[in-house]
Write a structure and sequence with these properties.
This protein is mainly beta. The protein has two domains: 125 residues, Sandwich (Jelly Rolls); 126 residues, Jelly Rolls, CATH 2.60.120.200. It is 0% helix and 52% strand. The strands form three sheets. Strands 1, 2, 3, 4, 5, 6, 7, 8 and 9 form a nine-stranded antiparallel beta sheet that branches. Strands 10-19-12-13-14-15 form a six-stranded antiparallel beta sheet, with no helix packed on it. Strands 18-17-16-11-20 form a five-stranded antiparallel beta sheet, with no helix packed on it. Strand 12 and strand 13 form a beta hairpin. It is elongated. The two termini are 20 Å apart. The relative contact order is 0.19.
Length: 282
């Protein structure tokens, strides 16, 4: 799924190439333990540009964001920080049509508007007072929205924001009983499920729900059931500020109000009696 190197700690300063190039939906995930006052994660290139500078300042309890086209630093943007010395942390940088979205410890922390094209970044560097335990780079989508990888049951990195449309094309199995699409808050087992969409052919119902801390919420079922076993479909999941709109074969089906903030979503998972032919996001 992503690029990563296996070792207890990476040597810092650390640098790795970005390949394939960044696209909408790309994620850079950095894991480690802060060991001093400051460290930094940079999306940069070999020409000397810093497209994004993420600089946790532990003593100041601030996250400083900046960029340096041609090596010339711009204005700093500051957000509150939840990283402490000696504690494990993760920083997730997501590429979206609106700019970079930065999450710290799985909580959306900041937005950073592009000051130069994100496609200019070809390296990730990590420097400073940090024990770097893992770094992963997940590919996004090309200009046509096509996915680079998809596998059943394996969470695929994805992010959601108002205006994003997630297209899922496939065919239910001839003897289909149930399948499900899950929007997850992490790619790891046990993640919260922000949106659980579970068509049940055996009950002719499409159940929607969410799961936080292992506890499922109240099911929603209204809206009918337009799917048929063995028939192709295209599902659209459209993110609005307050809810998801779900369409089936270009016809409105139902809405589902956010119970977990859309900013927390990091992955899509598909399970059950279905064959997926295409997943893309615009």
């Amino acid at each position: 799924m992503g690029q990563q190197t296996s070792s207890q700690y990476y040597s810092v300063p650390f640098e790795t190439n970005i390949s394939p190039p960044l696209g909408y939906g790309s994620q850079i995930q950095v894991y480690g333990i802060a060991t001093g006052n400051r460290f930094e994660v940079n999306l940069a290139n070999k020409r000397g540009d810093v497209i994004l500078h993420v600089n946790p300042r532990i003593n100041d309890r601030e996250l400083v964001l900046n960029s340096a086209p041609g090596g010339n630093w711009g204005n700093e943007e500051r957000k509150s920080l939840t990283i402490s010395n000696g504690q494990q942390f993760n920083i997730i940088i997501m590429v979206t049509s609106q700019g970079f979205k930065i999450a710290v410890n799985n909580q959306h922390t900041a937005d950073f508007n592009y000051r130069m094209p994100f496609t200019a970044a070809d390296t990730v560097t990590v420097k400073g007072d940090v024990n770097l335990t893992n770094i992963q780079i997940y590919p996004g989508f090309n200009q046509y929205g096509q996915p680079l990888q998809f596998a059943m049951e394996t969470p695929v990195p994805i992010n959601m924001f108002p205006g994003r449309v997630l297209y899922i094309s496939g065919r239910s199995n001839n003897n289909a009983s149930r399948f499900e699409f899950n929007l997850l808050t992490s790619t790891y087992p046990g993640a919260d499920v922000a949106f659980h969409f579970n068509p049940r052919f055996d009950e002719r119902e499409a159940v929607r729900n969410s799961c936080q801390g292992g506890g499922w919420g109240m099911e929603e079922k209204q809206g009918g059931f337009p799917l048929q076993p063995g028939q192709p479909f295209e599902i659209q999941i459209i993110c609005f500020p307050e809810y998801y709109q779900v369409n089936c074969n270009q016809q409105a089906w139902f809405t589902f109000r956010h119970r977990i903030p859309y900013q927390a979503i990091q992955a899509l998972q598909v399970k059950g009696d279905v064959t997926i032919s295409n997943v893309h996001a615009m």
